[in-house]
Design brief:
Radius of gyration: 30 Å
Helix content: 25-40%
Strand order of the largest sheet: 4-8-7-6-5
Structural class: alpha+beta
Distance between the termini: 71 Å
Order of helices and strands: EEEHHEHEEEE
Largest sheet: 5 strands, antiparallel
Strand content: 25-35%
Number of helices: 3
Mean pLDDT: 85
Number of strands: 8
Low-confidence stretches: none
Shape: rod-shaped
């Protein structure tokens, strides 16, 4: 151990110096608000509010993308449910679009043996027909 300019330095076998006094005198600050942290040595935030705020800001971009896509999918499902109260009916693409249906977003597709493709938003789906017509269907759960 050496004393250099009032600091205690411990030299280890690998040649690194470790300054114990400056480590003890450093004040940790909250990653969110910047206030001084008291308590455990590995503490990063002054309270739960700061921790939540920091993590929410850190993840907000990815959460916003997912949230917006989920909102479009839920709106599409609600529109299909509203236009198809009986479980199978016909409507037009124009009528669906007028209610705010977004044809770009769906949860899955189902290809039939005869080559037709149904587009689904959860359990509600549609099959594009001739011209502007669309067949709306509801997939029944068969007790998987």
């Amino acid at each position: 151990m050496f004393i250099v300019d009032n600091f205690r330095l411990q030299t280890f076998a690998n040649g690194y110096n470790f300054d114990y006094l400056s480590l003890m005198n450093t004040e940790k600050t909250c990653l969110d608000c910047g206030s001084v942290i008291h308590g455990r040595a590995d503490k990063k935030f002054c309270n739960d509010l700061c921790r939540n705020n920091y993590n929410n800001q850190l993840n907000s971009n990815s959460y916003n993308l997912v949230r917006n896509i989920n909102n479009v999918l839920k709106r599409n499902r609600r529109i299909l449910e509203e236009l198809n109260p009986t479980g199978k009916t016909k409507t037009t693409r124009e009528r669906m679009a007028a209610k705010g249906f977004n044809f770009k977003y769906l949860t899955h597709k189902y290809d039939t043996q005869n080559g037709k493709t149904y587009h689904f938003c959860y359990e509600y789906g549609y099959l594009p027909l001739e011209g502007d017509e669309v067949l709306l269907v509801k997939r029944e759960d068969k007790g998987e």
